[in-house]
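User: Here's a structure from my thesis project, written as structure tokens. My advisor, Dr. K., wants to see whether a designed sequence matches the one we expressed. Can you design one independently, without my sequence as a hint?
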């Protein structure tokens, strides 16, 4: 099925609380209703002939898009300090844009000063709050980048993320190998996989098999150097890139990782089955004329136990 141009699945996720307020969006709508009430109480509707449609569409569209951004942030981030500042900044900007939009429909007497005050302070205040939130977000990203170093290298592509292990997939690894070749950097590839994994899938089900793969991915990450990249090739096969390694060194790394995985005992549940499988491995240099996908297919056919 073709992916829709606009993905609205984020609407299905719960909205993160802001400042521990779960109904932060409702509070913002209440404030916007209060602004509307103020304009209706102190102003008079402008005749339709006086409406500036370019300003109405522009300012209304800005308020709508800011609201979408706010909803996206709350739907995609957990609660926390960074989320608080980002959402406060966007909410203040939404309120400022809403006041600007109300001005297009209502005429206020010159004696009313709160309108000008809100127009001149809300948007700049929101920009300042959002800027501070972005600064904190950058610090957060630096920490996350360090945690994800062995899962991604040089660029981030969420569309190439494996949903089970949260590692990159074969396409992501192929892109990384291509980057290494263009930079003329030596390196090696290692592929690992379980023997008898199909039996685990049949006897214990998909959920337990996926849990086993997740655990195996964590074990491999713990046994890799910081500059190595680990991806899931498919099924129970993992592939890793070892920058600067010769094929002989990669063979030794593969042997060590086999031992680590074969020492791993997976428990299906408390008091349940204990699963321990043998592991197959293969390695090769990245310096080849073959396409990266073909190199990995070759590794798949040369797995040794």
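Assistant: Designed independently from the structure alone:
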């Amino acid at each position: 099925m073709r992916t829709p141009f606009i993905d609205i699945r984020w609407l299905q996720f719960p909205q993160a609380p802001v400042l521990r307020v779960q109904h932060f969006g409702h509070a913002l709508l209440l404030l916007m209703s209060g602004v509307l009430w103020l304009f209706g109480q102190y102003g008079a509707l402008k005749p339709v002939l006086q409406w500036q449609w370019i300003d109405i569409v522009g300012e209304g569209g800005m308020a709508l898009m800011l609201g979408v951004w706010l909803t996206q942030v709350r739907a995609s981030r957990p609660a926390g300090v960074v989320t608080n500042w980002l959402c406060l900044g966007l909410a203040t900007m939404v309120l400022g844009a809403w006041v600007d939009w109300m001005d297009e429909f209502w005429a206020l007497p010159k004696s009313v000063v709160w309108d000008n005050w809100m127009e001149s302070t809300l948007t700049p205040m929101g920009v300042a709050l959002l800027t501070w939130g972005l600064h904190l977000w950058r610090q957060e990203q630096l920490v996350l980048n360090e945690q994800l170093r062995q899962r991604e290298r040089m660029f981030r592509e969420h569309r190439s993320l494996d949903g089970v292990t949260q590692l990159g997939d074969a396409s992501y690894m192929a892109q990384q190998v291509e980057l290494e070749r263009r930079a003329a950097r030596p390196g090696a590839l290692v592929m690992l996989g379980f023997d008898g994994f199909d039996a685990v899938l049949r006897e214990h089900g998909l959920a337990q098999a996926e849990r086993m793969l997740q655990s195996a991915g964590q074990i491999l990450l713990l046994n890799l150097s910081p500059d190595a990249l680990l991806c899931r090739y498919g099924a129970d096969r993992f592939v890793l890139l070892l920058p600067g390694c010769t094929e002989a060194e990669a063979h030794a790394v593969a042997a060590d990782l086999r031992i680590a995985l074969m020492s791993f005992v997976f428990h299906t549940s408390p008091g349940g089955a204990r699963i321990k499988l043998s592991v197959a491995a293969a390695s090769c240099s990245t310096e080849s004329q073959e396409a990266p996908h073909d190199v990995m297919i070759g590794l798949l056919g040369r797995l040794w136990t």
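When you compare it with your expressed construct, this may help: Strands lie at 44-45, 106-107, 187-194, 229-234, 237-243, 266-267, 274-275, 279-285.
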